[in-house]
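Continuing the batch. This is chain 6 of the set; chains 1 through 5 are on the previous pages. Same settings as before, nothing changed between runs. Recording input and output for traceability.
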Amino acid sequence: MSIAKKPVVVVVGSLHYDIMVDAPDRPRKGETVTGHAWAPKFGGKGGNQAVSAAKAGSEVRMAGAVGDDDFGRFMLASLAASDVDSTRVVRLPGTGSGMSVAISDAEGDYGAVIVSGANLKIDTASLANVDLWKSAKALILQNEVPDAVNLAAAQAAREAGATVCLNAAPFRTLPDELAALVDVLIVNAIEAEELCGRQVTDLASASDAAQELAKRFPCVVVTAGGAGVAGVQSGDVPIAIKALPVRLVSTHGAGDAFVGALVSSLAAGTSFAESLSGANEAAARHVSARS
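Output for chain 6:
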């Protein structure tokens, strides 16, 4: 009896050394808040999504850059521990690794500041390497690296026949040349509003926004936090799934857990509806656990 091969997912994107701070609240301008704990954590949207896709059962190849520093060594070790192929993550001498400081409040919500560092120096030429795309089913991109990097990766993925998935976070204007290559667009409520002008406040409005964006993209997913997730493929009826009731610990990284699980499932040939449901469950597990 043959064992089914894992689908190959390529992630091109950011890697951050996260410093997580637990505090009763997030500071206002000019205010100092006394926290009660802090810890280092592997992060960056690209890194988090790569780990999530690997956890969901994909063979994951990560392409990006870190500095030749302790932060970079930590992130490479974390990728290896999560069974992510990091041989295409370049260590850049004289450049600091990407990092962030995230403050999680008593309600489980958070605010963060990122310093991109090496993530801004990913070599676009390296993304054309055919070995990166061998047997690849899907590519995951985010907006924590320059548009030129995303465009080069999307062009290479399209040539290799891989599905191009863009998590357009954080929001920035999407170049037409890149938008034309996106097969699956994944956004949260704020990003959806910025892209289509429709405010997302609940599951119904998330479905409306997804349908509006589906006029421009073949497949659209709009996450609406505690309300749930809506998705639509061009020409199909929208799918809306309520969030699962869980005890909220922290929302930090929940979107990345969702994206990795969703794309891994789609790459394995699972239906869109089942993939949405599975990703919704993955996000619920993430927000209810202390990582």
